[in-house]
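INPUT
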Amino acid sequence: MELALRGRIAIYFDNNDKLHFVKDPLILIEENKIIDIGMYSKLKKEIAGHDIVGDKYQLLIPGLINCHTHLAMTLFRGLADDLPLDIWLKEHIWPLEENLNAKDVYRGCKLGVIESILAGVTTANSMYWYPSSEAEAMEEIGFRGLIAAPVITGITKLEDAIEIVNKHHNTAEEKIRVTLSLHSPYTVTMTDFERSYNYLVNFNKSCNEKSKLLLHTHLAESKNEMRESKQLNSKYGIEFPDVKTPTELLNNIGILDDNLIAAHCIHLNENDINLIGSKNVRVSLNPLSNAKLGNYMPPIPEMISKVRNVGIGTDGPASNNTLDLFDTVRFLALYYKGYLHEPTVIKAKEVFKLATIGGSRALNWEGIGTLEAESLADITTINLKQPHLTPKINDENILNHFAYSMKGKDVENVIINGKLIMEEGKISNLDIEKEIELVEEITHRLLQ
Amino acid sequence: MELALRGRIAIYFDNNDKLHFVKDPLILIEENKIIDIGMYSKLKKEIAGHDIVGDKYQLLIPGLINCHTHLAMTLFRGLADDLPLDIWLKEHIWPLEENLNAKDVYRGCKLGVIESILAGVTTANSMYWYPSSEAEAMEEIGFRGLIAAPVITGITKLEDAIEIVNKHHNTAEEKIRVTLSLHSPYTVTMTDFERSYNYLVNFNKSCNEKSKLLLHTHLAESKNEMRESKQLNSKYGIEFPDVKTPTELLNNIGILDDNLIAAHCIHLNENDINLIGSKNVRVSLNPLSNAKLGNYMPPIPEMISKVRNVGIGTDGPASNNTLDLFDTVRFLALYYKGYLHEPTVIKAKEVFKLATIGGSRALNWEGIGTLEAESLADITTINLKQPHLTPKINDENILNHFAYSMKGKDVENVIINGKLIMEEGKISNLDIEKEIELVEEITHRLLQ
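OUTPUT
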């Protein structure tokens, strides 16, 4: 039997940025795709042979897309909060990571995937050690994700990263992709950036769109990034005295284009924003994590007006502290209104766009982030029959609830690639309590 | 049978600002009070005759305290978001309020009380029309709350407010109190403020502490408040050419003291903050609402270092958009870190304090906001066995989860005044779906 979904209303952007509201909707799925969406009264004749999921209280939206995270860092959630960034990283996170093994990452990532699905996230772009373990966890649960083939100067080589690409890219019924993950301009030399980019461009030449690789990096996250980048490169004999920002730096070596997904993008000047926009760089904004780490805040109102390929991410659960994209949605919708004293900036429909079709563009993953016919069947349903989502008067009112009232825990059903992964709040064949215990055992061991 | 509560850990501040962590705790309740709290192994001999609530996965905290809201505004949630403040208020909220009746407020408030309890809030200070309707809803469900006896110049008189005080203050087993609610310095003349204050001081002379009245007002919420206040007072022949801020204004007429609970407190200069602190004014900070309405942000880091009687509030659900105090907790913990680029500002234990014992002080309600022996038995329990609250390694780690990961929906049990109001997520004798429908019918009618 194929799946069909019913609800009170479906909301989605199409690829031309048109916002659709479908009342009393029916979504018909075949294999891994949405084959039709429309009013139940019009489509019900096609319903034979479909199992119906949902009821008249569900909001149907595209599965949410987390454009930048480190899934396995569930292991370190809440261990060292309210600390300066360098102490947090150097005295707490890095020493813990030194003793991690592949099995630990599998467990941590699995819990991260579970947490994501419980909150209606169907795709995540995760950058972490032991990517094969992350792939294993994602595939086991049926998640859609990007894992990282890491290149860090002096630590991991391009050749090893290529092995990861060859092993995992476009596997698991094409639900898993690999990004060539060059951690940042302050941990990877420009030589390594150039070599990796050249490999990637060659790889992509022979590919159709959905087989293309992305280069994934942290860009302009910290204030000291430019200075640290100059120091690192200098050690390897590379100097760039005239370059003033990390964005300019990547542009100068010719790698600022739509092959790149850049996370954070905080310390940008106007020229940097224009470069990123005009060169169609893909961007993941992670404002909640930036706030918590005191990393300055990205120029998001300017970014969303000038950059098309922009989505949002949670960042890792050690610095957020959840994988619930609704938390980031709401924080983003609120922070800039408070900061700019401007209640009309970053409206509900803009955050909805960032969390859905924007994510599809940021990750260059066609067919997700929308509910259009022919798109991939990644769908999240939310139970609207709850006090904090009352009243439901009209389309805009429900969209406002998405931005300002909903939480991951309101999610009831999750479909990924046409499969019902979560039904009425339960992920089948999964002992969540056991997974929690296993993660806590690992964290205890790492802290010893 | 009396109640006893078990859990994994209990966390609370005592009245001397000492933070307590009790592992494997047992809380013994008799009638409406906590008679003892300690480790289970030590207290278990006293457990006979008690019904046990909770399990080894619960975090036990004081019931959360919402220091400023407008409960019945659930009726207007999400109807007009992302708009400038004056358009929101004058073109949307006020016209809807014109057609409200007492029954509507009862329904709206009842849903607000339900939403609050579902999110672990056990006390709320609500300012709204038809206060008898709010009292009725609170009493019916067993909530602890303050309702408003309104004084607005030209609209409602002190004499009518006094009737409300006489009818409702310290009723419902002392769970309901009344505040003399003088809406703001721009809607109430200084003459009316003085008259009301004089009545209140006389009233309080003859009272013990728990029978005292508070004067409740919005203070320094909008940028135009001083100008509008001068205009209003001028109409009634009152001039104060030398006064520069609303806080100074209230101080000049001698009413800035611990009889006052002031909500918002955004537009304060250093002198204002010192005045509020030194005169022990009670304050409700509502940063999430302030951000959403673009009302500038209050100087919270300075306030919490200089003002003792300070708690937090959600403000009304038309401008937040929820009554979930965890939303405000997290936004507060994050906003100032982002704004000040300082990850160590407003730590987890500070927001926990604001949401608990701070609320008790802000509302001058002794015995709530703590779990000390002899305090009132208002207790919230949270299920820690969830992916987004993993791992649980030590005391601080769990407190970090309170600030950065928990949500209202994680709450499992709620006790108010010694009574189990919510058990395992269910409020007994209540058809929530019916309440939702009734509220939606009212909103539809008001919009016609």
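end of record. Chain B touches chain A through 76 residues (CB under 8 Å).
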